[in-house]
Amino acid sequence: MQEASGLQLHGVPAVLPGYACYKVHDETYPAITASPKGVVQGLLYENIPADALERLDKFEGDMFVRKSLIVSSYGIAVPAWSYVLADNYREHLEPIEWSFDRFLCKEKRTFQRDYHGYRNIR
Where are the beta strands (DSSP E) in the chain? Predict the structure, then answer.
């Protein structure tokens, strides 16, 4: 469960076919990009308020574009917003897929140290 501005959000498992998740060069976070044979595992959050989406847009900056995509959750196709790497930033991707397990083992502490927080975005 995630909290955004006092709002409790519950994520459910979802997959995004046709995309892959890659490590961003010199960063601990990933980026997703179109990849015909790829599949990205993630969480689907519903009923996110418009003001929270606006803050997310600012947080993600120019490097990511919010796109309406179709994900699968519990075998049901569901429309969802997702932040996809903007085409003009593709050279920032490393040629290896991003791993959540590797992030937890090797990069989480760095991310937590350097992360300024979503709440600081207005």
Answer: 2-4, 7-9, 11-24, 30-45, 64-73, 76-85, 93-97
Number of structural domains the chain divides into: 1
C-alpha 62/C-alpha 88 separation (Å) is 10
CA distance 10 to 2: 6
* pLDDT, tens only, 61-116: 999 999 999 999 999 999 999 999 999 999 999 998 888 888 888 888 888 887 76
The pTM (predicted TM-score) of the whole model is 0.81
The set of residues, in sequence order, having a beta carbon less than 8 Å from that of 7 and lying 6+ positions away, is: 49, 52
CATH number at residue 98: 3.10.490.10
For residue 93, what is the DSSP state? E
Q: Which residues form the domain of 34?
A: 2-120
